[in-house]
Structure formats: C-alpha cells, structure tokens
Amino acid sequence: MRIDRLFLFLTLSTLLATAPLRAADESAAANAVAAVLDDFHDAADKGDKARYLGHFTEDGVFLGTDDWERWPLPVFRDYVGKRFRDGKGWSYRAVERHVRVAADGETAWFDEIVESPKWGRFRGTGVLLRRGDQWKVAHYALSFLIPNAVGEEVSRLAQAAERQATPE
C-alpha cells in the first residue's frame, strides 16, 4: 500500500512539475507560428514571391474565396508569379489570431481575422507543420466575413452570379 502511494505521489509530482514546461513550449511554438504568418502576409504585401512561397510545404494548398480556387502549390506558384510580377501582391494584416499547437509540437492550426485595405475583413484558417526548425503552411483558407444582417442579400447575389457563370 505504501509503495502505491509513493508511486502515485511521484507520478503526480512529475506531471505537475513538467506541466509549466509544456505550456511554455506550446506558447513559444504558438509565437513562432504567429511570426511565420506575419511574415507570410508581409511577403505577399511586398510581392516577394520567393519569401511568400517559401512559407509553404511542398504539398501545400491555398484556398481562395471563390469556389474553384483550390490552389495546390505547383499551380499557385504560377498564379503568385503573375500577381507579384510588379513587386506588389495583396495586403492582409492580422487583427486577431488564435493558434493551437498539437501535443507533439509538430502541427499547429490557427484562425485569424485579417484586414485588406481594398476588400475589408476576411477569416484565414489553416494548418502549419514543423519541418526541422521551421514552421511551414500546409493549408491556408481565406473566406469573406459576411455579417449575418446582410447574409441573405449576399447569398442572393452569390447565387445570381453562379447562375450567370454556369450555362444551363
């Protein structure tokens, strides 16, 4: 009985002693992910193709706001090359961000609200994977934020646009 209590005490002590370390590691990883996302957006703003695309995993995917915009990295490279040709891409600045890191420290996911001077507010969501000592974007999805108060009107406009774009 005494050995069981001692084992329980040692196990709990170890868990309690290492919990702050895990929290600190997760916080450091979340900060590193946030820094990558900030640089990702800065590279796009400056039209820096190499830096922007360098943030993706080799099999990364970017999902744009239109339903057909699923860009695997090889195809996205061409699109970004054309868009960044004049040294300017697109401008998004994060105004809110939430990052979580998996217990193994190798995967992170996030959601953020970003603002564009031209288009307003969007939600970006995605997954980053740790590759060596770097975090890389495996998946980024960008969505328009539509206030519920105008959702029905926006939905009607979107449906009308889809009908015009789709031959019957």
Protein traits:
single chain; 168 residues; globular; Nuclear Transport Factor 2, Chain: A; 45% helix; alpha+beta
Q: Quick summary of this structure?
A:
The protein contains four helices and six strands. It has helices at 2-45, 49-53, 73-83, 151-165, and strands at residues 56-63, 70-72, 93-101, 107-116, 120-131, 134-144.
Report on this model:
The protein has 168 residues and is of the alpha+beta class. The protein has a single domain (20-165), classed as Nuclear Transport Factor 2, Chain: A. Helix content is 45%, strand content 32%. It has 4 helices and 6 strands; from the N terminus they run H-H-E-E-H-E-E-E-E-H. A hairpin with a 3-residue loop joins strand 4 (107-116) and strand 5. The relative contact order is 0.13. The mean pLDDT is 90.
Sheet with the most strands: spatial strand order: 2-1-6-5-4-3
The amount of helix comes to: 40-55%
CATH topology: Nuclear Transport Factor 2, Chain: A
Provide the domain count. Answer: 1
Number of helices: 4
Going by CATH, the architecture would be Roll
Largest sheet: 6 strands, mixed
Global shape: globular
pLDDT < 50 runs, ≥5 residues: none
Gap between N and C termini:
78 Å
User: Which sequence of SSEs, written as H and E, runs from N to C?
Assistant: HHEEHEEEEH
Mean pLDDT: 90
Number of strands: 6
> What is the percentage of strand-forming residues?
25-35%
Radius of gyration: 21 Å
Classified by CATH, the class is Alpha Beta
Task: Determine the structural class based on helices, strands and strand pairing.
Answer: alpha+beta
